[in-house]
Amino acid sequence: MDKKVGGASGAADVQQHVDMRVSCRASTVVWYAAFVSISAIGLATRLYQLDVPAHVCWDETHFGKFANWYINRTFFFDVHPPLGKMLIGMSGFLSGYDGSFAFVNPGDEYGATPYLGMRFFCCLMGASVIPLVFLIVWELTLSVGAATLSSTLVICDIASLTISRFILLDPILMSFILLSTYCCLKFVSLRHRAFHATWWFWMTATGVSLACALGVKFVGLFIVLFVGLNTVADLWHLLGDLRNSMTTVIQHLLARVVCLIAVPALVYVSFYAVHFHLLKKSGFNTEGYFSSAFQSQLEGNPLNNASMPEYLAYGALVTIKNYRTGGLYLHSHWSLYPKGVGAQQGQITSYFFKDDNNKWLIKEIDKEPSSGNQSMDAVKLVRNGDLVRLEHWITKRNLHSHKIPAPITKRQYQVTGYGMVSERSTYSLADQHFVVIDKKGRIS
């Protein structure tokens, strides 16, 4: 009797094991079928008539230009980090685009320009959002139905579909943000396998994808904040678990510092290293943000391989720029301050672009520079503590200040251009400026 019962019980266990394997296999088939189907449908909807419209659309005017500059290796400055623009430029280069289309105005016809490579790349990045949503929801719920429903909603989202079909940063940004989210969830799900190879892999992948998201647009800071808060909460739980020694908690902390701070920082900085390595030519007027020393390294820049005097002399024609990064040039022009805004004298402003109106002649306070060629012995150098005049090269007015409130910053004095062109010797004590040379050789 016991043998019969034991035999029946053993047979039942075997049958249950077989049923579980069949069920697991069936579930795997359903999962892959749903994942592949959703991904294919999403890609098909994004690729459909990708060549329409066959003209520059919306912000393609901007990001197409960026691709041009990367392909032609022309230096430029932009508010967004470089990764997304470099990827667009790379996709254009690999698809045979030579960077010659102007991208001037929305509506300009592409004609024979091979623009589809760049659109195709952005489309792939936008389409990758759909499988990533599926994977994220599956990781959170372990429900094929929930994952399928959520990714179907993204497929049907018109905003997501539209923005994925053009040469834009947004589909690239969305892809990297969702990739960061998925990698973070995979890493968290492996907390029971701490310091295992897969644990290290997903934590490092999280750090790299965070750098990529931030490297496309600074909006990526939000996913950095999400992962950061999740990491703080995770460490707090580890610290509160009395089964963990302090050594184990410190090891977890150091692992996260390396993979979620150091690795992303290195990857992010590497994007700029590639950016500066690629862009070697001058041509687009944004290098004015940078120092003269930097500009001198750009091929075609007026400062490239230029011979610069070591010291500043009276009679020199100079531009004056704030030494901080992004500093602007001291600038003037023919326009006067309007009536009711301080003295009606020449306007003094700061200006970003290079221009002849940025040029100033350095003079002694009571002398005009001698005409004709001077010998080296006759050159008089500007020294620390000197009083000088700065005459605007175009308008011939002196840089001037007086005790009249500035138009905007009322606590400061107004700065103007003073003196009539017909009276070259017209100047006053308020045109004199005291020269200070600091230990680094900077003049102020």
Task: Give structural notes.
The protein has 444 residues and is an alpha+beta fold. Helix content is 48%, strand content 10%. The strands form two sheets. A four-stranded antiparallel sheet has the order 1-4-5-8, with no helix packed on it. A four-stranded antiparallel sheet has the order 2-3-7-6, with no helix packed on it. β6 and β7 form a beta hairpin.
Strand order of the largest sheet: 1-4-5-8
Number of strands: 8
| Cα-based radius of gyration, to the nearest Å | 33 Å
H/E series:
HHHHHHHHHHHHEEEEEEEE
Distance between the termini: 106 Å
Structural class determined from secondary elements:
alpha+beta
Identify the quaternary structure here: single chain
Strand content: 5-15%
Write a compact overview of the structure shown.
The strands form 2 sheets. A 4-stranded antiparallel β-sheet has the order 1-4-5-8, with no helix packed on it. The protein has a 4-stranded antiparallel β-sheet with strand order 2-3-7-6, with no helix packed on it.
Spell out the blueprint of helices and strands.
Layout: H1 2-47, H2 60-72, H3 83-94, H4 116-127, H5 129-141, H6 144-155, H7 158-163, H8 170-189, H9 197-216, H10 221-240, H11 246-278, H12 292-295, E1 317-319, E2 329-336, E3 346-351, E4 359-364, E5 387-392, E6 398-405, E7 413-418, E8 433-434
Antiparallel strand pairs: 1-4, 2-3, 3-7, 4-5, 5-8, 6-7
Helix pairs in contact: 1-4, 1-5, 1-6, 2-3, 3-4, 4-8, 5-6, 5-8, 8-9, 9-11, 10-11
Based on the model shown, name its key terms.
single chain; alpha+beta; four-stranded antiparallel beta sheet; 12 helices; 8 strands
